[in-house]
Design brief:
Layout (H helix, E strand, L loop, with lengths): L9 E2 L4 E7 L4 E3 L11 E6 L4 E7 L4 E4 L12 E3 L6 E3 L8 E6 L4 E9 L6 E4 L10 E11 L2 E7 L2 E8 L4 E10 L6 E6 L4 E5 L2 H4 L4 H28 L1
Parallel strand pairs: 2-10
Antiparallel strand pairs: 1-2, 3-8, 4-5, 4-9, 5-6, 7-8, 9-10, 11-12, 12-15, 13-14, 13-16, 16-17
Length: about 240
Amino acid sequence: MCLCKLAGVFGDLDGLESVSVLEGDSVTLDSGLTEIMDEDLILWRFGSENTLIAQIDILAGSIILYDDVPDGRFRDRLKVDHQTGSLIITNTRTEHTGLYQMQSNSVRKRFSLSVYARLSVPNITRDCSSSSSSQQNCSLLCSVVNVGHVTLSWYKGNSLLSSISVSDLSISLSLPLEVEYQDKNSYSCVINNPIRNQTTHLNITTLCHTCSGSVEKLFKKASLAVIYKVTLGNALAQKN
């Protein structure tokens, strides 16, 4: 099992360390101790209610993991490093996001853990329902489903064209884009959170074909033109 201690950890003025990890990965919250002393009592707490989730009592010779609280979200996911007292959370889920506090005889530390859902690849489709669709322009939609805490963006080359961000969980997003059929620029749709991104590149030739509705309209126009020419020809022949 891979235990990942995030390189993106940083501390701020009040001693709070921020840690980010992808859902399903493991994360280690570093106690800051090189080794546990004989008299050490180490307590790990979670959330605003300071719920005790792990206790290392060297004098009593005991290590207790309270992984059934709160609401069982830590069940079978908690471990501690027997040498340093660091807390290890395996197979993380988004509900493990929150505040963690560690207290020993010599050290106090606080961590803000953010667990992000894994990102799906954005899907680019032709938007035939758009009123702006025409014979010159191609309307597109870039979509993602069941995402949270992400930003969805359209890029032209390396330049940002538009974006939308959400903080909710399990939401679906769509972002429109309109290009010309003959546009030779490079376009891409990108979804990202603070630690990962996924990109889909636009193939104008493949996606910007004529919509079925547009085909019907063109067929009707052509039919009307033929009928008009035939009717006009007959009228002129009768007149002569």
